[in-house]
Each structure stands twice: as structure tokens, then as C-alpha cells.
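ligand=adenosine-5'-triphosphate
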Amino acid sequence: MTAAKNNAAAKNNAIEKNNSASACSAGLTSVAAATDSVMQNPCKAGLFITFEGVDGTGKSTQTAYLKEYLESLGAECVITREPGGTAPGRQIREILLHSSDDISDRAEALLYAADRAQHVDRVIKPALESGKVVISDRYIDSSLAYQAAGRVMRTDGVKMINEFAVGGTMPNRTYLLDMDYAASKQRLEHEPDRLESAGAEFFERTRKEFLNLAEREPDRFVIIDASQSVESVRNRIREDIGALLCKTSAGIMPAGNLQTNLQAEMSAETSAEKSGKMSGKTSAQSEQK
Ligand SMILES: Nc1ncnc2c1ncn2[C@@H]1O[C@H](COP(=O)(O)OP(=O)(O)OP(=O)(O)O)[C@@H](O)[C@H]1O
Ligand SMILES: [Mg+2]
């Protein structure tokens, strides 16, 4: 472990200790404990990866890239999203994102949690139990950031219902795509949905809470500057997932295959970079063709 990582872990412990002193921190401590237990015993149960961040930061784009990459290494992937990762969930998504009815903040939080419970029970857990890689575009942290901080609700209540919803199934890795709200909004091509219409202050609170969550769990989160090019973000994720797979791949694919595939992948990228340099192009430009 590097000195920087040691510091981050010590900071995390200190934050956890502080939190356990307050009544509303009970939820947080057990979310972290659930993550720890998955991290300690990840191989028996596939690999669970989530993407988080406010709208337009590139979650769907990077989810698709990561799937393609992991499949090229021999992993079997399940791509999913929240809300709406199941048939009942799609009905909930419709209400959450497109209803013109007035939905109270508490009802909204419970609807997200109901969608999540169904998603965990019917999609995520079964896939992990059969040794697959599950990549979810949003998960529990979105509720902690949007419903608790964005809507300014009681954090302990939102945590409690979400812990019930996930039942201990926590991601091994969460990529937080972070960028300025005004810039990410520019990227959105569709008409804003019910949540996307919530305004700049709502998004600033939400973004800040995502960063707080990441600070509390540095072993699970990787924060990525999402204002970089698509290729730079993609490469940062590949670099991280390669390292994570070396630690946790046993249940996903035979370790020998993974090592061979990763080595082949890395040498292919090195040669692509060399030929890109020779022709005056970056590797990203070469790959974009
Ligand atoms: N790094 C990037 N640089 C520039 N444009 C990007 C980048 N990443 C994604 N985009 C573009 O921005 C738009 C939004 O990306 P994407 O749909 O992946 O974001 P999202 O986080 O999934 O958004 P939402 O929360 O609304 O689902 C798309 O048109 C995508 O092609
Ligand atoms: Mg998306």
C-alpha cells in the first residue's frame, strides 16, 4: 500500500469513527461494512461495478466502453441501470422521470428504493452469484446523493431504506464521473426529465454529496475528472479495472487467461501508442478512426 493510500485509509477510518458517534451515522457505517465484506470476499460472487455522477457526465458512454473491454478480456458482463433495470422497475422509472403528478420527496425516495430492491433481487444478485461482471449505470449512491442531499431530506431515513433495498449487495468498484454541472448540462441532448429539471442548486448539492461519499469510501470509489475526453476517461477506467481484476478475478475468469489477455491488451496498446507517435497521432486519435 502506498503512503497516499495509507493516508486515505486512515482518513477513512477517522471519518467512520466520527460518524459512528452520531445517531444518523448508523446507516453509513453499515453501508461501509457491507462494502468491506464484499471486498474481502469478492471472488466467489462475480464483480460488481457501478457508475455514478450527475447527468451528462458520461456514465452511459463509459458503461458501454467498459463492457466492451471486459468482454474482450473474456469476462461475461451484464449491463444494467437504475431506475428501470427490471420490468417493474421500468414502470417505476416512468413515474419517477416522466410523471407530471406531484410526487413527494419521501415517496420519490421510496420509489427509487423499491426499484433498487427488485433490481438487486432479480438481476444483480443472480448475475453475481453465477460469476458474471455486473456493470450498473447508477446504484445506491445516486439515492444518497440525489434524494438525501439534492432534495434535502433526512439522510438517516434515505440510508435506512436503501440498506434494506440492497441487502448487503455493494459494488466492488464505483466510478464517480465528476464535472461542473453547467458543462455536463451542455452535453445533454434530450429534453430534461423530472429530475434533470431540478435546477443548478439541486445539482451542486448532489455533486458535492457524491464527492463526500467518495471521500468516505476511498477503497470503493475512484473519482474521475469527467471533463476530459471520452478516450482519457475510458483509459483511466481501463487502467484501474486492470489492477482490480488482478486482485479479484478468480470467480470471473481463469486467472491464467486474464493475465494473458491483460498482457496482450497492454502490449497492443503500447504498440498502438508507438505507431501513433510515429505518425504524429495520439493513441486516442488512432483508435478513433
Ligand atoms: N468525455 C466526454 N467528452 C465529451 N462528450 C462526452 C463525454 N462523455 C460523454 N459525452 C457525450 O455527452 C453526452 C452525455 O453522455 P452520457 O449519455 O454517457 O452521460 P450520462 O452520464 O449517461 O447522462 P445521463 O445521466 O443523462 O444518463 C453524450 O452525447 C455523449 O456522447
Ligand atoms: Mg445515461
